[in-house]
Design brief:
Layout lengths: L4 H6 L5 E3 L8 H9 L4 E4 L5 H14 L4 E6 L5 H10 L4 E5 L7 H6 L3 E6 L2 H10 L4 E4 L5 E2 L5 H11 L4 E4 L5 H9 L4 E4 L1 H4 L8 H8 L6 E4 L7 E4 L2 H11 L5 H8 L2 H6 L24 H18 L6
Parallel strand pairs: 1-9, 2-3, 3-4, 4-5, 5-6, 6-8, 8-9
Antiparallel strand pairs: 7-11, 10-11
């Protein structure tokens, strides 16, 4: 069985985190992943702190294993959610879409392990100095908010730059991705898109069907003009966003308004036309819906076989 610094640091059977996907990563999915040997993560999203506290307590009822909370730092409620995470003493906090430095001291004081998502070497070094115990190096293949570097180039550079464990994310959906991440210097992986098709994931079946039927060229990126690009599956909404973004007569405020509520419409209402179907490029590798335990077990069994056979390769 593959054991790494990440599995030992966080008390996991498998060194895998489930991504903190807004309107997707709730207590049900997080507890299923944690019960399967990975680290399930609840997304705080843009909602008020009361929702996060409820989800944390519900997750504790559903699992005895470690789990985490993801706090999107662009949220207007980030400060409240940061306080709740400390008060509830969640085992792990991951962060995204911003710099977590001002919150790290209160989390460390509460005994929380802090694992920021980083898009560059410079930010990885910064959060390591500030007290992060690991970082998630996420390539632009990922769904949702993304940086500019690919997983293939980002992970080894971050692994060389910091002494804390690196968790690879972006484009990983099977054992080949796990094995590749470990060979690049990562000590674990984070998967989001693959868990969209977990049986325990509460998004509508039509959302899951879009993921499992996706082709390699079926995602696109919008939002660069706003400074926070997002990858999602192509549909009428994404094409219209791209059109508005390219139109110099469309104001920033109009673009922001057009984006409001789009993910909620897809993930909670099943609107596949005017909703934002957030998923990464790994969607093309997701072919079926399975229980979380089977997803994780199959990934690591495949990775183990590949890594054991790696020494047989010759130029």
């Amino acid at each position: 069985m593959i054991q790494t610094r990440v599995s030992r640091l966080f008390g996991l059977k498998y060194p895998i985190f489930q991504g903190g996907m807004a309107w997707v990563a709730d207590a049900q999915l997080a507890s299923a992943v944690s019960n399967s040997g990975g680290l399930g993560i609840i997304s705080a999203m843009n909602l008020e702190a009361g929702y996060l506290r409820e989800q944390i307590r519900l997750c504790r009822e559903m699992t005895e294993h470690p789990f985490g909370v993801n706090i999107m730092l662009m949220s207007p409620h980030a400060g409240e959610c940061a306080q709740v995470a400390g008060e509830e003493k969640v085992p792990v906090v991951t962060t995204g879409a911003g710099l977590p430095g001002k919150y790290i001291p209160q989390w460390l004081e509460a005994g929380v392990k802090v694992v920021p998502v980083v898009p560059s070497v410079a930010i990885a070094r910064r959060v390591a100095r500030e007290g992060a115990c690991a970082v998630i190096a996420e390539g632009c293949e990922a769904g949702g908010h993304i940086g500019e570097l690919t997983t293939m180039t980002l992970v080894p550079q971050v692994a060389d730059a910091v002494d804390i464990p690196v968790i690879a994310a972006g484009g990983i959906a099977d054992g080949r991705g796990v094995a590749a991440a470990l060979m690049l210097g990562a000590q674990g992986v984070q998967c989001g898109t693959r868990f969209l098709a977990a049986e325990e994931c509460t998004i509508p079946q039509c959302f899951k069907d879009k993921v499992t039927s996706a082709r390699d060229i079926d995602t696109m990126v919008t939002g660069r003009r706003l400074g926070h690009p997002v990858r999602a599956l192509k549909n009428s909404y994404m094409m219209e966003f791209a059109r508005k973004e390219a139109d110099v007569n469309t104001s920033r405020e109009e673009l922001e308004a057009f984006g409001t509520g789009a993910l909620w419409r897809a993930a909670r209402q099943g609107d596949m036309t005017t909703g934002c179907i957030m998923a990464g490029q790994a969607a093309a590798m997701v072919k079926e819906t399975l229980p979380a335990r089977d997803i994780i077990r199959s990934m690591f069994e495949e990775a183990e076989r590949l890594l054991e056979g790696a020494g047989q390769w010759r130029v």
